[in-house]
Structure formats: C-alpha cells, structure tokens
Amino acid sequence: YTNRDVTCDFEKSVQEGRGLRRALYVVAAQPRVDRSRMALVGHDFGAMYGILAAASEKRVSAVALQAFTGSFSDWFLYNQKQLTPDARQRVIDRLAPLDPLKFIGQLGSTPVLLQFAEKDFYVPRDHAEALYAAVRGPKQILWYQAGHGLNDQASQDRQKWLRQTLKLK
Questions:
Q1: Is-contact 37 59, C-beta < 8 A?
Q2: What is the pLDDT of residues 113-169, one digit of tens each?
Q3: Cα–chain-centroid distance for residue 78?
Q4: Helix (H, G, I), strand (E, B), or coil: what is residue 20?
Q5: What is the pLDDT of residues 40-76, one digit of tens each?
Q6: Are residues 94 and 88 in contact, defined by beta-carbon separation less than 8 angstroms?
Q7: Which residue of 38, 57, 104, 116 is surrounded by the most CB atoms within 10 Å?
C-alpha cells in the first residue's frame, strides 16, 4: 500500500460492490439455494464491500462481518505518508459516499453479527462500536483476544450464529 495511487479507489470500490452484488445474483439463481436463507460473510474489505452489496440486496437474510472499519479511507490512506494533508482530505471526501458506516443502517431488519479483535492494530474499538451503534435491526457484537485475523473461537461463534439465525440444523 505504500506509495499507491489512490486516485482510482472510489471507482474500484464501486466496481467491487457491483461485482459482489452480481455474485449474489448468481448464487441466488442456483437451483439448490434456499433464497430465504442467504447469508453474507465478510472480513476486512470483504465486510466493507459486503455492506454495500447487502444494503441494496434484500435477499440477504443474515450478515456476519469481521474486523473492518466504517470508512474506506481508513484502509486506503494507511501508509500513505507522502500525501499532503489536503490530498488526504480529498481522498477522504471522495470515498465518503461509500463509507460502510453510512450503509450499515440500511440493512434494516436483517440480523447482523459483528466480530472484532481486542488486539487489532487496524480497527480501533471506537470505530467498531460506531458501526454497532449504526445497525438498526437485530445485532450482536463479539470481541476476541486476538489480532486482526481473529481466531478459531470467532469462527465457531460465527458458524453457531449463522445456524441459529438461518434456522439450520
């Protein structure tokens, strides 16, 4: 990410969100898929793009998101020390319309599981709590004694939550 060109991040993020929505359409079109029990699971950027897709895709009936922040600029500006303060602000302003913090509330009544790590250098606790506060429907937040990649307990908890939320055996 060092010395990376940030001028195309908005367009690339829009493309990622659209691509993920297309993937949801493809999954939903499969004959053995129960469209009433589709879940979206995402970690880091996958969680951020997942929010963009799920906010406009009503077939998603559960969302489980891990280790992410509410603003794309948090990631895209990481290690961009060569940028002037004005250039940094332009990036923040350009990406702001896509910020997951703005879209997570649009998940409506879709149940949301948020999972974060106590020792995550990249995701400050206040960012995670702001995301949790923005969820309007059923929600749960879980914290783990782990780093950004979380741990096995997070995986087990997510699987249990998905089984319960989607009413799977």
A1: no
A2: 999 999 999 999 999 999 999 999 999 999 999 999 999 999 999 999 999 999 997
A3: 17
A4: helix
A5: 999 999 999 999 999 988 889 999 999 999 998 887 7
A6: no
A7: 104
The two beta strands, 139-144 and 60-66, are unpaired
d(C-alpha 59, C-alpha 130), whole Å: 25
What does the block give as tokens for 28? 């939903």
> Two tokens at 99?
């910020």
The answer to whether 122 touches 43, Cβ cutoff 8 Å, is no
User: Distance between CA 145 and CA 1 in Å, rounded?
Assistant: 27
Residues in the chain: 169
The tokens for 113 are 């599981």
Q: Using CA atoms, how far apart are residues 2 and 12, in angstroms rounded to an integer? A: 18
Residue 165, both tokens:
């939320």
